[in-house]
Amino acid sequence: MSDLTRLTAADLAAKIHSREVSAVEVAQAHLDRIAAVDGGVHAFLHVASDAALASAALVDDSIAAGTAPASPLAGVPLALKDVFTTADMPTTAGSRILEGWRPPYDATVTARLRAAGVTILGKTNMDEFAMGSSTEYSAYGVTRNPWDPSRVPGGSGGGSAAALAAFEAPLAIGTDTGGSIRQPAAFTGTVGVKPTYGGVSRYGLIACASSLDQGGPCARTVLDAALLHEVIGGHDPLDSTSIDSPVPSVVAAARQGADGDLSGLRVGVVRELGGEGYQPGVQASFDAALRQLEKLGAEVVEVSCPHFEYGLAAYYLILPSEVSSNLARFDAMRYGLRVDEGASAEAVMAATREAGFGPEVKRRIILGTYALSSGYYDAYYGQAQKVRTLISRDFAAAFAQADVLVSPATPTTAFPIGDKVDDPLAMYLNDLATIPTNLAGTAAMSVPSGLSDGLPVGLQIMAPALGEAVMYRVAAAYESTREPLVAPEVSA
Amino acid sequence: MGTRLDVPTAGRAPGVAAPVIHLLEGPLSAAITRDEVAHLARLARLAVTDAELDVFAGQLDVILGSVARVGEVAADDIPPTSHAVPLENVYRPDELRPGLSQEQALSGAPASEDGRFRVPQILGEEA
Question: What top-tier enzyme class does this entry carry (chain A) (predicted)?
Answer without folding.
Answer: ligase
